[in-house]
Amino acid sequence: MSAPVYDYSGKAAVVTGGASGIGQAIAERLRDAGASVQVWDLAPPAFDGVSFAKVDVSDPAQVKAAADGLDRLDLLVNNAGFAGPAESLVEFDPALWRRIVDVNLVGVYEVCRNLVPLMMRAGSGRIVNMASLAGKEGTPNASAYSAAKAGVIALTKSLGKELAGTDIRVNSLAPAAIESPILAQMSAAHVQIMIDKSPLKRLGTVDEAAEMVLWMLSDACTFSTGAVFDLSGGRATY
Length: 238
What we know:
β1, α1 and β2 form a beta-alpha-beta unit. Strands 3-2-1-4-5-6-7 form a 7-stranded parallel beta sheet, with helices on both faces. By secondary structure, the chain is an alpha/beta fold. The model has no long low-confidence stretch (mean pLDDT 93). It contains 7 helices and 7 strands, in the order βαββαβαβααβααβ. It has one domain (12-231): Rossmann fold. α2 runs parallel beside α3.
């Protein structure tokens, strides 16, 4: 079975956290489909065919500086994030807890705050915010990540409704565990628990995530906004 073919020629895209993992897979797919892709990350990507801006998405000044360098924007993927260690809420370092929320949730706000006006001036656009099944279920020993991703889901619903009168669609993807560098931040036992919860009994792949995102960014996605699409191997129950 062949994958759908997308044509993003003439489209300008920003992928945050696009230097590795799911973000890299998305950036490479968009590039290969003809889009002009800019990766926002802390370190430059190790692949060709995209531009790069060093951006900590939780830093308003850095986000604004990168946004000011853009002439237009058609596609935005808010993918930057990190999970942090698997620790109970009461044992979690408070500064790290806040940092996880800042990157995973406040970063989405800062990027949207600066880039949505570009789309509004153009009258169209597609935004995909990377959520997580943790934001729907609440993963034990991941309170900061779960809370941040729940916030991303709610932000997506709110912004999608705000922009419903335009041709800008705002949706989120909620993956279960995906085989990517972010899993290195977790213990092997924690990862195995997530695999065991999956009816498919495996991790998802970055290519499977990118495939979903490519559709969400396409002109085929017209009647969905403020939605949460699961990518869970059958694990999601609502």
